[in-house]
TrEMBL record:
Keywords assigned by UniProt, alphabetized: Cell membrane, Membrane, Transmembrane, Transmembrane helix
Protein name: Uncharacterized protein
Main location as per UniProt: membrane
Lineage top rank: taxon: Bacteria
Residues that span the membrane, as ranges: 21-42, 54-76, 88-108, 173-195, 302-323, 329-350, 362-382, 388-410, 431-451, 463-487
PANTHER family cross-referenced by the UniProt entry: O-ANTIGEN TRANSPORTER-RELATED, PST FAMILY PREDICTED COLANIC ACID TRANSPORTER
Source organism (scientific name): Corallococcus coralloides (strain ATCC 25202 / DSM 2259 / NBRC 100086 / M2)
Membrane topology per record: Multi-pass membrane protein
One Gene Ontology cellular component: plasma membrane
InterPro entries: Poly_Biosynth_Transport
Length: 505
């Protein structure tokens, strides 16, 4: 009797994130162009106003959904009839969008007075419409990813980000300035809202509303939603605090210092989303014990990217800020170096893991502590140290919150048969290897700068000459990092291979 063929080994679950990563990688350059182009086209005061407008919009857009849209990651992988959960999310965020528009319309004047920037009121109508429609379209990509449709979600990311980048960059380039851009983004958000209803409900079954299921969905979402009500204002508090004590032109410098390339969102968000779906599948299949391996795999791959990325940005901060924004923004370099800590803190996908295990109360507790810690830190930091105190307060509060989440992860991934500790969930080997190689590569940039500083200063004017120091530093860092990994027996391409989309044999 011939032996039965062995079942084909299923590909790593991270392979599902591949389409999302590739789509975001393609649009990252377009998205990155927005602040870079506007920094050169808009006047410094107007550039600060642009940042203040979108600070308000993003704060409302992340707080008011109250976790209902994110609850789709938990319910859809477990549900047969998916339409009610989708309908609840769409209706809830639509109502939240109306509330957001009302808040902008009636309270923007008070915010403008606090920011000492009456120019904000010139954009009240456009900001209200943009916030309402953008918030109402929040479930678009979530609805697809949570159903395992990562390729469709990637296409939506691709189209949406490309159009959004165009409507934000083209009006100022054509001479319509900030006012034209705000009208264009409001129209874009309206079209995205219509697309959200059409795409999200397509192919789903069941009634649009089921009050019993909505209550269950709201109970699950409430702790996470309450956590967002604390987390987003807390994360943005340093921006509001600084905006209230400096002029819009100086605030533009601070926001450049807080600028981060979209690499974190590019890799962390789809990886965390797919991890949540995978943990839900493992729970449904009775294979909870495999959850810790999925978490370590995700964190290990992120470590090989985020640690060198953070090390490069810290070491090459002057070259990066000068090349991307121009020499007038070089005073933002010290602030930028502190903000790089956010990349390191994103290595472990802890919040997604806790949400997948239904432990949203732990997320709420961590955000509550962060909010409590932030208030005295900001008061002291901004009062005595100005903008550096603002960014340092944010960094310290983030470390406290991430530490609280990390403590809860082992318990979330444990099973009755296997109780885990911190040493079991953290990918120590990957962290050590990436840290050592990144530290050595970053040191080479400091040595390069000390040797050719006079040469860089005397380079001719022009964009290509301004980018040359950054390009040389980047090439040196990449070579140093790859050599450092090879010296430790790590093959970089093999380490990242699981992010490539693959089919099962």
């Amino acid at each position: 009797m011939s032996a039965s063929p062995k079942p084909a080994r299923s590909p790593s679950f991270l392979g599902r994130a591949g389409p999302l990563v590739l789509a975001r990688l393609f649009t990252a350059g377009l998205t990155l162009s927005i602040p870079l182009v506007l920094a050169r086209v808009l006047h410094l005061d107007e550039y600060g106003t642009y940042y203040q407008l979108f600070l308000i919009a993003t704060t409302l857009s992340y707080v008011l959904p109250f976790g209902v849209a994110q609850s789709l990651y938990y319910f859809l992988p477990r549900a047969e009839a998916k339409r009610p959960y989708l309908g609840h999310a769409l209706l809830f965020v639509t109502g939240a969008g109306v509330v957001a528009a009302g808040l902008v319309w009636f309270f923007l004047g008070h915010v403008a007075a606090y920011f000492n920037n009456p120019a904000l009121m010139d954009h009240r109508a456009a900001l209200a419409l943009y916030t309402a429609f953008f918030l109402g379209s929040y479930p678009l990509e979530i609805s697809l990813t949570s159903q395992g449709k990562t390729k469709a979600s990637a296409v939506v990311y691709l189209a949406s980000d490309a159009v959004r980048s165009g409507v934000m960059v083209l009006p100022p380039l054509l001479g319509f300035s900030l006012h034209g851009m705000m009208i264009a983004v409001a129209c874009f958000a309206g079209l995205r809202y219509v697309a959200t209803w059409v795409v999200s409900l397509r192919g789903s079954t069941g009634p649009l509303v089921d009050w019993k299921l909505f209550k269950e969905q709201l109970v699950y979402a409430a702790p996470f939603g309450a956590a967002m009500c604390l987390a987003i204002p807390q994360q943005n508090a340093h921006m509001y605090a600084v905006a209230g004590v400096v002029a819009p032109a100086v605030y533009a410098l601070y926001r450049v210092g807080c600028f981060q390339l979209p690499v974190v969102d590019l890799l962390y968000t789809p990886t965390s989303e797919v991890l949540m779906v995978r943990l839900g599948e493992l729970e449904r299949e009775g294979r909870l014990e495999e959850g810790v391996e999925a978490f370590r795999e995700a964190a290990g791959k992120l470590a090989y990217v985020f640690l060198p990325f953070a090390a490069f940005l810290f070491a090459a901060a002057p070259e990066f800020v000068g090349a991307m924004f121009g020499q007038k923004f070089l005073p933002a370099v010290p602030i930028f170096r502190v903000s790089v800590l956010g990349v390191v803190l994103s290595i472990l996908p802890m919040d997604g893991t806790l949400r997948a295990r239904g432990q949203t109360r732990a997320i709420f507790a961590s955000y509550l502590v962060k909010a409590v810690v932030t208030v005295p830190l900001l008061w002291f930091g901004v009062k005595y140290f100005g903008m550096m105190g603002g960014i340092a307060s944010w960094a310290l509060a983030e470390m406290v919150g991430k530490g609280m989440l990390l403590i809860r992860v082992p318990r979330a991934l444990s099973t009755p048969e296997r109780q885990l500790g911190l040493k079991d969930v953290i990918p120590w080997r990957e962290l050590a290897q990436a840290s050592l190689a990144a530290f050595a590569a970053g040191g080479s940039i400091f040595l390069l700068r000390s040797g050719v500083h006079d040469t860089w200063v005397n380079l001719p004017a022009g964009f290509l000459w301004r980018v040359l120091p950054l390009a040389v530093a980047g090439l040196l860092f990449v070579v140093g990092y790859v050599v450092g990994l090879y010296a430790q027996g790590v093959r970089p391409w093999s380490a990242l291979q699981s992010l490539r989309p693959r089919r099962a044999a």
